[in-house]
Amino acid sequence: MKKLLIANRGEISRRIMKAAKERGFIVAVIATQEDSDSLICQEVDHVIEVSNFLNAEEIVEKAKSWGANFIHPGYGFLSENAAFAELVENANISFIGSTSQNIKMMGSKETAKRIAQKSNVPTLDALFSSDLKKIPADKWENELKNRKIFSPFLVKASGGGGGRGMRIVDDVHELPQAIKRASEEAKASFNDGTVFVERYLKNPRHIEIQIFGDGKGGGVFFGERECSLQRRHQKVIEEAPSTQVNEQLRAEMGKASLALVKETAYKGAGTLEFLLDDAGRFYFLEMNTRLQVEHPVTENVYKIDLVHAQIDLAEGIWPNNFPDPNHFHLLSPQAVSIEARILAEDPRNQFLPTPGQILFYKEPEGEGIRVDTGVTEGSRINSNFDSLIAKLIVTAPTRALAVQKLKNALEDFSIFGFTTNISFLHSIVMQKDFLLGHESTHWIANNIETLTRYNLPQNLIEVFQYKKFREQLSNMLRGGRISTHINNVFLNQGKNLHNVNAKLDANSDLDFIITKSHEKNKFFVSGDSISKILKEKREHKEKEIYSDLFQYLSHKSQYKNDIKIPFSAIKTSHNEMQVNLFGEYLKLDCPYYNESRIHKSAKGSGEIRAPMAGKVFEVLVSEGQDISAGQVLFIVESMKMQLEVKSAEKGKVTEIFVKQGQILSGTDVMAMVHSNL
Questions:
Q1: Which SMART domains has this protein been placed in (predicted)?
Q2: What is the mean pLDDT of residues 43-67?
């Protein structure tokens, strides 16, 4: 039996394992000691422990000892590392990806730009890494002007992807520091700290073309993906096809992409990324010489399996359901597919990572719904790795139906234990701009205030925050029953439904009933207060955007009084509950316990606290040092992202409690500052 080693982790490793198992392969995965309890490690035939995911020599040596016939690198880590691919090739193991020569030519964004220019593919001018080394920093400003590269600038890592190693810079004098930070972040993520500078387009669309080369100059392309919805250069929602790409533009971009495939004799799956401006002009950005995170949308739209196709090619076979690679084919999309990335991060707190354990996990189900994930209930989201929890992919005959399916699926996706971006994604897909396809790479940043609002009526939130409600929900989550009056209408609901009625004090007119469902952690709330809220929203017809289910129940309330609002809830700690209500997540204090206060580096507190769990990457101050407001004191690394910890005020550093390399468990106190105000 053939043996395949997956040199990756998380959801992509499970995606590869599925395809390999379908072919009867024996499958192994690499894992570090801290990641040995992951879901993939419980599912594969063998787990091969390594010191880290970037140690190419160790991985190849252990693959040889295990007798691997194939190595699949997935995405990220060493997937675009030419030295790793070459080590695999030299070990007589089939590398399921492009060749080491392909990666050398196209895996580097700098080299890829030069090859694109040679192939007459439009590009943005750049100041390359060799220029940055050769030209003194005080001469950069003139050189940028000479090359017609004007502010704002984009510092970009030459290798890797996913927004790592990227910085937007408005002032040319800030470039040296931005280059240093971007280089460090790229080195930590891809083991390649090479960066360059190019012009930053302010309002483009991000369009990418999926290609598959035969390694002899031939190849095919499977349309485009719209990847414009991004935050911090990281894709959030992707879809195929794009609403802004017609058949003519699709053909032009496909031909440009296949010109690069021919020039490089590219082998296997790859993605050409372009920026598209308002005039319909496209500019080549880079090539990802690997499988993309968002590859499922292309699979769904063109009815193909890219992982199986990769394995076919590694075995010397052109995929039998792919067109002839020696002729140009303009394939028509057969559906619309949209992917949303579910991440462990807090959009209402500057998208800071939120690693932790998943206490409750429930995926949406139904026709046209696919979830690719590397976790299950009980899994840990580790601060040492990427924040991706799952990819939610929906497919439908039309975009309108796909958007509707995505809205409903996000509302049904429940993850408790820490904060995720689910409600943020839900807010995006409810916006009119998204429904109309009016988006750009800056749309999220320009609408962040709207997107991070609670999409719930304030008076409904107040019901959930009311102390009596929290008391009774907390009691029900502990398995208890409340022996208070139950309305007659609920006495007939069946012996397995537990009901709680709350008649509040004389100073409040709130009246509600909490009912436990048969489903785990699912409840209903109803009563006069709920009916009143629903009727008010229906009659006032306010401009706020609420979920389709809320609007349906609001409409239903005009002829029915005992409307029940569904919600999910769990107790995440002794002092906190989490609630999923119409796709919006609320954190509620348990009234029986004192709230544990989390202090931030707030003005006047004197404490400088870490923003999250992670590692102290750099200490930039010393005890006794005078500092200014906004000065960067520490760099904290979490989930491969570097975050600056700044002082809230002017003062003097009196004590430092951490050192470089120290692991932070959470919002630890890093230093004390005496204010000069």
A1: Biotin_carb_C
A2: 97
Taking residues 650-664, report their average pLDDT.
91
CA distances from 431 to 107, 271, 502, 524 (A): 36, 29, 36, 27
Which has the minimum average pLDDT: 393-407, 493-507, 532-546?
493-507
The answer, yes or no, to whether residue 360 has pLDDT greater than 50, is yes
Tokens 């500078």 belong to which residue? 197
- Run of H or E residues at 238: strand 234-240
Distance CA 168, CA 152 (A): 7
- Packing angle, helices 10-22 and 306-314, rounded to 10: 60
Mean pLDDT of 168-181: 92
Q: Which CATH class is domain 607-675?
A: mainly beta
Burial 592-621 (b: 16+ CB within 10 A, else e): eeeeeeeeebeeebbbbbbbbbbbbbbbeb
Structure confidence at residue 302 (pLDDT): 98
Beta bridge partners, 672, equal: 607, 655
User: How many CB atoms within 10 Å of residue 674?
Assistant: 11
Chain centroid to Cα 229, Å, comes to 11
3-state SS, 178-210, equals HHHHHHHHHHHHHCCCCEEEEECCCCCEEEEEE
The arrangement of secondary structure in 3-96, i.e. its CATH architecture, is 3-Layer(aba) Sandwich (3.40)
Residue 14 is a catalytic residue: no
From residue 646, alpha-carbon distances to 137, 303, 475 in Å are 26, 49, 41
Q: Which of 164, 181, 290, 609 is catalytic?
A: 290
- Distance from C-alpha of 78 to C-alpha of 190, rounded to nearest angstrom: 7
Q: Is the pLDDT score of 185 beyond 80? A: yes
pLDDT of 502 over the 60 cut: no
Q: Sign of the CA dihedral 111, 117, 118, 121?
A: positive
- pLDDT greater than 80 at residue 58: yes
Contact 5, 63 (CB under 8 A): yes
For the segment 180-190, the average pLDDT, to the nearest whole number, is: 86
Chain-centre distance of CA 656, in angstroms?
33
Query: Where do the domains of the chain lie?
Result: 3-96, 125-200, 336-451, 458-589, 607-675
Q: What is d(CA 305, CA 313) in angstroms, rounded to the nearest whole number?
A: 13
* Pair 10, 374: CB distance under 8 Å: yes
Architecture of domain 125-200: 2-Layer Sandwich (3.30)
Q: pTM (2 decimals)? A: 0.83
CA-based diameter of the chain, in Å?
A: 83
What stretches of 466-564 show up as alpha helix (H) in DSSP?
Answer: 467-477, 488-491, 528-540, 548-556
Which of 421, 440, 505, 474 is closest to 201 using CA atoms?
Answer: 440
Spatial separation of the C-alpha atoms in residues 557 and 554, rounded to whole Å: 5
Indicate whether 243 pLDDT > 70: yes
Nearest alpha-carbon partner for 198 in 243, 240, 156: 156
Please write the tens of the pLDDT for every residue from 262-316: 999 999 999 999 999 888 999 999 999 999 999 999 999 999 999 999 999 999 9
**Domain 336-451 classified CATH 3.30.470.20?**
yes
